[in-house]
Amino acid sequence: MKEVFFSIVVPAHNEALYIDKTINSLKEMEYPRDKLEVIIVENGSTDNTFEVIKKLSPPWFKIISIKEAGVSKAKNVGIENLSPESEWVIFLDADTYLGQSFLKDLSEFLRKNEDKNLGCGMVSILPYPDYKIARFWYHFYNFANRVTKTTRSIQIIRRDLLRDLRFDESLTFDEDTMMIRACRKRAKYFFFKTKKVFSSTRRFEKNGWIKQLFQWIYYASLPYEKKKKIKYKVLR
């Protein structure tokens, strides 16, 4: 079965303390090099994120630095620099990393379901560090994302849908939900079960698990115009 050409776009803003694990996981992927590109977009960092990225990244990574801070802007710059061969794009948070065989598993799933007009999706995520309360909450969030057809930490989108779709640069949060919502109008959403995607629990540990839950519910309920006025707090 022919492998999918994946493009992985990683937006990075003040991620010097976390992005090493993400970069190392991408370097160690068990996947054909000619079917994979990695684009890291450092955006407006005030720490040494860019230096860390340059130090850890192999020559075949595309490294881009822009002055403007903003996750949507960074993702859009990634889209503008995709290879013409790209079939599926994975937008990956800088504190989220992948197991070595994840892309092989995902490629097989997508190839087997090519006739179903899949266009965007999410995967199950495990916490790191891994401990009991974190596993419980991540199980809940995975269930919620599957039921509501939303995403967190990672978005997987079919390349052709991005020809005229972009992330909303007026938003500092929820840009992924808005993008997935737009994609769902054109193709089907999927949820891919895996045990090979891991995301940092730092926001939960900083804010508290219950507080973070209610904060997300509150933000999700806001009308679009109010979302544009909120500057989402960056935690590092």
Structure report:
Helix 1 (19-27) packs parallel to helix 2. The protein has helices at residues 19-27, 49-56, 71-80, 102-112, 132-148, 175-184, 202-207, 209-221, 224-229, and strands at 6-12, 36-43, 62-66, 88-92, 96-98, 118-123, 126-128, 154-158, 188-192, 197-200. The N and C termini lie far apart (41 Å). It has one domain (6-229): Spore Coat Polysaccharide Biosynthesis Protein SpsA, Chain A (Alpha-Beta Complex). The model has no long low-confidence stretch (mean pLDDT 92). The strands form two sheets. It has a seven-stranded mixed sheet with strand order 3-2-1-4-8-6-9, with helices on both faces. 36% of the residues are buried. The radius of gyration is 17 Å and the shape is globular. It contains nine helices and ten strands. Helices cover 38% and strands 22% of the residues. By secondary structure, the protein is of the alpha/beta class. Keywords: Glycosyltransferase, Transferase. This is Glycosyltransferase family 2 protein. It comes from Dictyoglomus thermophilum. Pfam families: Glycos_transf_2. Residues 7-146 form the Glycosyltransferase 2-like domain.
